[in-house]
Amino acid sequence: MYPKLAVNCSDINSPFCPCLLADTNHCISCSHLRGLPFCECNWSGLCILYEKQWQSKGSGWRGENNLERWDITTYISRREQFAPNIHLLEFEVSEEMARELRTTGSFVFMRRPDDPQYFHFPVGIMKIQDTTATVVIEAIGPKSIRLLETPDNQILVRGPYYNGVLGQPWIDNITCGTILLVAGGMGQPPALPIAAKLLANGNKLTAVLAPGKIGKIFIEKELQDMGVEVHSVESMRRNGLGMLSQWLGGESKPDLVVSAGPDDQHHAVINAMDAAGVNLPMAVTNNATMCCGEGICGACECETQDGHPVKLCKVQTGFSQLVT
Ligand SMILES: Cc1cc2nc3c(=O)[nH]c(=O)nc-3n(C[C@H](O)[C@H](O)[C@H](O)COP(=O)(O)OP(=O)(O)OC[C@H]3O[C@@H](n4cnc5c(N)ncnc54)[C@H](O)[C@@H]3O)c2cc1C
Ligand code: FES
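Output (structure tokens, whole complex):
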């Protein structure tokens, strides 16, 4: 049995820690900054209490050194339509934003600049080339359709946010392993930077891709060019999961399984592992409904199996440790 992941905050060691939760005595990682008289942190190389006291020397309830996420008004510089509702967008961001968005699992909130903040919605970063960000958006409801119809191509991008993948430490720490990557539908855009990170650490990847509800596979060639062994199937449910079960039940098991797609797919992959009698580390794309992205509004709250509420916009944990 592999070890459980410690519950931790994805903002630690970022420019945005200590955050609003530390200011309001609800820090995820520092027990002192939750009002307790002792330290029980998982040392991450940084003392949030020390940072907080040092930064609070400024005026106001937020210290003057506290950083808020960056809002960037920018323009869609390129669009490509992959399928009836699926649009690839490119836009420029600042150098500091681009640097932060290179972290695997990064995402931004997007809206039209003149719309109220509650129109913004989370969008994963598929690629960052210099200061050009690439995302893929499914035009599905009021927020996404409105963004895609923005006049003059003007958009507002807020970020960076980091918790787009649950089980991220497995991806960050594995080297020279074999990985099974399962990506369906809108799981394809986040699968690309995950694959790039895993390949950069000397891992060998086999990917199973399915078009999902959007009806299109669009990362196959790029993954193949990167050196991934790709198996594209018509349907994850009808063909992909059977293929997965065969591999999981075979002689050589992967060291890590990554599922990029909807929660139903994550559960189907867990069921395939259970059926094959294997229990492997797993990383998945985070599909929580997010509104503020700061651990404040509560939209993304979920419960762990040991009964603790966690805000999935910030808290890093394993998907199978959640009650879903
Ligand atoms: C970390 C993360 C990364 C994401 N990356 C992408 C991406 O790269 N491209 C993309 O097209 N979509 C992405 N999504 C999903 C995207 O945020 C939703 O599709 C979008 O919010 C839909 O809003 P809507 O008003 O257009 O549609 P709605 O009709 O409001 O919603 C359609 C469906 O989208 C989901 N959704 C709605 N609001 C939210 C919300 N605030 N947060 C999360 N999910 C929501 C719900 O499942 C809902 O059923 C991501 C979500 C998360 C959490
Ligand atoms: S999105 Fe607001 S608390 Fe997570």
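Residues 107, 121-124, 135-138, 140-144, 164, 186, 189, 286-291 surround flavin-adenine dinucleotide (ligand 1) (CB under 6 Å).
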